[in-house]
Amino acid sequence: MIMSGGTGIWALVLHGGAKAIPPERAEAKREGCRAALRVGASILRGGGTALDAVEATIRILEDDAISNAGRGSARRPGGETEMDAAMMDGATLDLGGVAALRGVRHPVSVARLMLREAPTLLVAEGARHFAEMHGAELDESADLPMLGDAGHDTVGCVALDGHGHLAAGTSTGGLEGSMAGRVGDSALPGCGLYADDLMGAVAFSGDGENIARTLLAARVMQALEEGSPQAAAELAMARLRRVGGEAGGIVLDRAGHVGWAHNSPHFAVGIATSEDGILRTYLWKGEELDLD
Prior knowledge:
- By secondary structure, this protein is α+β, with helices and mostly antiparallel strands.
- The chain has helices at residues 26-45, 50-62, 107-113, 124-133, 208-214, 216-224, 229-240, 285-291, and strands at 11-18, 83-89, 95-101, 121-123, 155-160, 166-172, 193-196, 200-206, 247-253, 258-262, 267-273, 280-282.
């Protein structure tokens, strides 16, 4: 059995969004996930922290224009982008979240800066001001082409480091054409993400309003008290049926065991663990099941 608590065991799981992937973009999606997975796994393999691994992994995904995050973010009616992101430290339960943030290259890094700050969530101009005050890299290039499909290509990552600490992170460009100031689930603890060293870590992608209405991340954390990560992920999908909608979730428990599930046509996922060090990427759950 894999055990945590400073044993050197590590694990990292990322996702590239819960949505149908057109055949012509499937390999690009897989390569984007593989590139991010390689960076995050390298940090953990070298003894780095879960927080560092999650942030670095998501930064790579934010720079991948095929994802609806960072430079690939969906456009609002006026052509501008508004981004949400969050990070959570499982050791301290510190949370940093930003929403409706404009003009920043890496929203996840702004969320990271907010850990151990108060308040835990900033939106719109408040989030932008915080980013500027703390030297975050700005990017006003709203005319960048959006290669990703508008919708649910939110990206996320969960990690366990060799010190037994967990972290979770999310980043999204939201819904194309949505109302200015919209806040989805990605920046909301207990909805789009959560991390607690005593239980595990989770990150979701999908229909943000319905994920928030059903508190999917909180449901997963409750399920981890008695069940496996895979059972917890599947329970969340069952819970979502009450309100409908598509979603996908990735889950790690404190022992480094992995679970993931989705009800969307595709859900790009990358997995790496210290058990064998192999970088595995999947575009839907069936790929993993076919290989088992």
